[in-house]
Amino acid sequence: MKKQLLFAVSLCAGFIASAAADSRVAVYSPGQSQPVVIEGINTLQQLTLNPKLAGQTWWPGTVIAEKMATVVQLEQQKQLLGRLDALLADLRQDNDSDFAGSVQQVRSQIAALRVTGRQFVSLDADLIRLQREANRKLQGDYSLYLLARPTNVHIYGAVAPAGPQPYQVSRSVQDYLETHQHLDGADKSYATLILPDGQARTVPVAYWNRRHNEVAPGSIIYVGFSSWALPSDYQDINEKIVSLLTHRIPD
């Protein structure tokens, strides 16, 4: 995870890079096929206070992405699918059909994922106004993905069924998983909770270690593969899947 954090920091540094041209922000709204382009937005404060965006999005889950970082994430998705294909081939060669079925389901989830070069910065207008360092510069081409306040929680990984689940107040990660079946090779002791702002943390979910970790609307719950089930050459698969999920484009 340290390498991913450093990578995210390096991407965010692009906000401060010197450039002569103003930024262009392509704003994507739910249900609209073409973005609205806003030019001349030079800082995050100018973006979050832009009248065209007033009341148009739920800022805690809004995603801003940089053009070249998006190219990187799409390549990461392609490489991850290749790794999952290789894992599937190895499992089938070993006649491990049950675990192969689990990996195939997760691969299908990753293939359907819409990802972008998310920049891990706060879009809280009050925080940006009060903290000078939070008001990062925008220089270059960006995409902004708007969304209404979420009413679902999304479940990914080695569980069935996967997909969106209705959000319910005060429910924990374990509460959401109680009605789901863990697939062969799934980690039954821990899951990963990804908050709407992209922050991810590991949470205990087994009967012997569970703690109440309340889930916010719009969060992602990922149930990974157990380390004992993964061959030694694929121990980083969960880490790569979580990284990609933090770059998911919101619905």
3D structure, described in words:
With 251 residues, the protein is α+β, with helices and mostly antiparallel strands. The protein has one domain. The chain is built from 7 helices and 11 strands. The strands form 3 sheets. The protein has a 5-stranded mixed sheet with strand order 7-5-11-9-10. It has a 4-stranded mixed sheet with strand order 2-1-4-3. It has a two-stranded antiparallel ribbon with strand order 6-8. Helix 3 (67-93) runs antiparallel to helix 4 (97-112) and helix 3 (67-93) runs antiparallel to helix 7. The chain is globular, with a radius of gyration of 19 Å. It starts with a helix and ends in a 6-residue tail after the last helix.
Short description:
This protein is α+β, with helices and mostly antiparallel strands and about 250 residues long. About 30% of the residues lie in helices and about 20% in strands. Mean pLDDT is about 90; it is low at about 1-10 and about 15-20.
